[in-house]
Write a structure and sequence with these properties.
Blueprint lengths: L16 H9 L10 H4 L7 E5 L2 E4 H17 L7 E5 L4 H12 L3 E5 L5 H11 L3 E5 L9 H9 L5 E5 L5 H7 L16 E6 L9 E5 H14 L7 E4 L6 H5 L2 H8 L2 E4 L5 H11 L3 E4 L1 H12 L10 E5 L5 H4 L1 H6 L2 E8 L2 E5 L6 H6 L3 E2 L5 E5 L12 E7 L11 H7 L6 E9 L5 E6 L3 E4 L2 E4 H9 L4 E11 L3 E10 L6 H11 L9 E4 L13 H13 L7
Parallel strand pairs: 1-10, 3-4, 3-5, 5-6, 9-10, 9-11, 11-12, 12-13, 23-24
Antiparallel strand pairs: 1-2, 7-8, 13-14, 14-15, 16-17, 17-18, 18-19, 20-21, 22-23
Helix pairs in contact: 3-4, 8-10
The structure holds adenosine monophosphate and 2,3-dihydroxy-benzoic acid.
Length: 549
């Protein structure tokens, strides 16, 4: 292992020393690497992971990730290097994640739905030395995009491409190791990996997470959810997402010595069959998936016997739907309101039905500091009043990666992160999310930064102004509507959608609807007046005005 100051460090905004010391003194930051989550069970033959027919024990998990880490180190990669990773929900996602952590290489795990534009943005910011991707993804079916990435990130010198048949047993061959080489993890106070922000700006931002801060959030989450070696978690949301990764997610389950069962996606019938086959005890969904599960459960004879807990989070969950979970799915509900930037709130397992159905819980840690302020005046909101949520704490980051200008806006002088969420706190400290001030659309838990799409639309030769807003949707909660001013009155939605697709954005970011306007309403300072625009669109929707088709 290298000494703390002999390896290349990845830059990040640190916590002020006094706070860092207090987090250590309180035992919140335990000084252990995230790989301890697996290695603490290294002699256990219990099953850590089930993926299709494969069952991987903790002992095997620990050994394989050691071997892979050694292989990665032997190929010249190590602390200071970063990796761009894009994998679907398969066992290799975790095996490679822990191998990278052990080798001190900091990955960013892109979502599988991400396309050229997102991956390019991450590569341009991180300049990764290593790419891990799947040949099953349309970007990696040949080598064209890999060559593009190498131009954007000249340090990129290693590629691990998994074929659809690649299994962990021969993954070790991919990085050609047969010997127990040395690998060098970094200190627990350093960056372990990068989490993705849903964002509200033109370019997707990266969130450096340290071993210390992330490990604390996982231990505390596992405790709140009362996880044990008997917990069996179905991972049906995208594995890379902060919620199924850490709240308490798969990492919480591994920490507790339980079993993670992989599902490719939340499709209810397949998930129900996995739950029955593997005696799954808990899972995590976004609200739009719960709707599908409730419908599918209605057609079943038997309740899901083993399922004890369903977590719901990522987007607003209507109390009327929340109430249906226990009776129709036969399990308890937990609401989770979190963010990849840090702060996670949970309703607690023994809370009253009223709190569980109508609130999004309260912060997981006593060390989380919360401020709710009036967005106009900055004054503290009283209990019951709506305000903007600011937070800082032992697992809330202090700055996006290399984004000084944006950080100046996203943080207060005292280091509080401005989440952009509008919340209300009740007299017992429970938060309810009532809206947001950030310019983002939350499409069934998938976040879309309005500015990113507007900038792309503005690149179209016929478009002179563009605004992306949310519109209410029964299934997803919100959908996106692009209002455009065009020089060509015959511009068609289908052409715009195709245009955006050729630019390489993820499908979930494609506007659901388009509307052609003569002008966009402007505020006094000349910015798009989205409040007025939203109102105009809601009124037009009522009179059944035709959308651009
Ligand atoms: P991200 O920055 O992509 O990690 O997304 C985090 C954001 O998702 C939060 O700031 C909220 O806007 C939203 N969010 C997460 N959980 C919930 C929830 N339970 N209810 C409402 N909004 C949520
Ligand atoms: O939406 C999120 O980002 C989210 C939701 C629930 C999250 O990051 C989390 C829990 O950790």
């Amino acid at each position: 292992m290298s000494g703390a100051d002999t390896y290349r460090r990845i830059e990040f905004t640190p916590w002020p020393e006094a706070l860092a010391q207090s987090y250590r003194a309180q035992g919140l930051w335990a000084g252990k690497p995230l790989s301890d989550i697996i290695d603490r069970h290294c002699s256990s033959e219990a099953t850590a992971l089930i993926c299709g027919q494969r069952h991987i024990s903790y002992a095997r998990f620990s050994q394989l990730t050691d071997q892979l880490a050694a292989g990665l180190s032997a190929s010249g990669l190590g602390p200071g290097d970063t990796a761009l990773v894009q994998l679907p929900n398969i066992a290799e996602f975790y095996l490679l994640f822990f191998a990278l952590l052990k080798a001190g290489i900091a990955p960013v795990n892109a979502l599988y739905s991400h396309q050229r534009l997102e991956l390019t943005a991450y590569a341009a910011q991180l300049k990764p030395s290593l790419l891990i991707a799947s040949r099953g993804h349309r970007l990696f079916s040949d080598d064209v995009f890999i060559e593009e990435l190498q131009e954007i990130a000249p340090p990129l010198r290693q590629t691990v491409l998994l074929s659809e048949q690649t299994q962990i047993e021969n993954l070790a061959d991919l990085v050609s190791i047969n010997r127990a080489d040395h690998f060098a993890p970094v200190a627990a106070s350093e960056v372990a990996f990068f989490q993705l922000s849903g964002g509200s700006t033109g370019t997707p931002k990266l969130i450096p997470r340290t071993h210390d801060d992330y490990y604390y959030s996982i231990r505390r989450s596992a405790e709140i959810c009362e996880l044990s070696a008997a917990s069996r978690y179905l991972c049906a949301l995208p594995a890379a997402h902060n919620y199924p990764l850490s709240s308490p997610g798969s990492l919480g389950i591994f920490y507790a010595g339980g079993t993670v069962v992989m599902a490719p996606d939340p499709e209810p019938l397949h998930c129900f069959s996995l739950i029955e086959q593997h005696a799954v005890t808990m899972t995590a969904l976004v609200p739009s998936a719960v709707t599908l599960w409730l419908q599918a459960a209605a057609g079943r004879q038997q309740p899901l016997q083993t399922l004890k807990l369903l977590q719901v989070g990522g987007a607003s969950f209507a109390p009327a739907l929340a109430q249906q979970v226990p009776s129709r799915l036969g399990c308890a509900l937990q609401q989770v309101f979190g963010m990849a930037e840090g702060l996670v709130n949970y309703t607690r397992l023994h809370d009253s039905a009223e709190k569980i159905f109508t609130t999004q819980g309260y912060p997981m840690s006593d060390a989380d500091e919360i401020r709710i302020i009036d967005p106009e005046t900055g004054a503290m909101a009283a209990d019951g009043e709506t305000g903007m949520l600011l937070t800082r704490g032992p697992y809330t980051f202090r700055g996006y990666y290399r984004a000084a200008e944006h950080n100046a806006d996203a943080f207060t002088a005292e280091g509080f992160y401005s989440s952009g969420d509008l919340v209300r706190r009740d007299g017992d400290g429970y938060l309810t999310v009532v809206g947001r001030v950030k310019d983002q659309i939350n499409r069934g838990g998938e976040k879309i930064a309005a500015e990113e799409i507007e900038n792309l639309l503005l690149k179209h030769p016929q478009i002179s102004a563009a605004a992306l807003i949310s519109v209410a949707d029964d299934r997803l909660g919100e959908k996106s509507l692009a209002c455009v001013v065009s020089r060509d009155p015959a511009l068609k939605a289908v052409a715009l959608r195709k245009y955006l697709r050729t630019l390489g954005i993820a499908d979930y970011k494609l506007p659901d609807k388009f509307r052609l306007l003569k002008t966009l309403p402007l505020t006094a300072v000349g910015k798009t007046d989205k409040k007025t625009l939203r109102r105009m669109m809601a009124e037009q929707a009522k009179v059944g005005d035709e959308a651009l088709s």
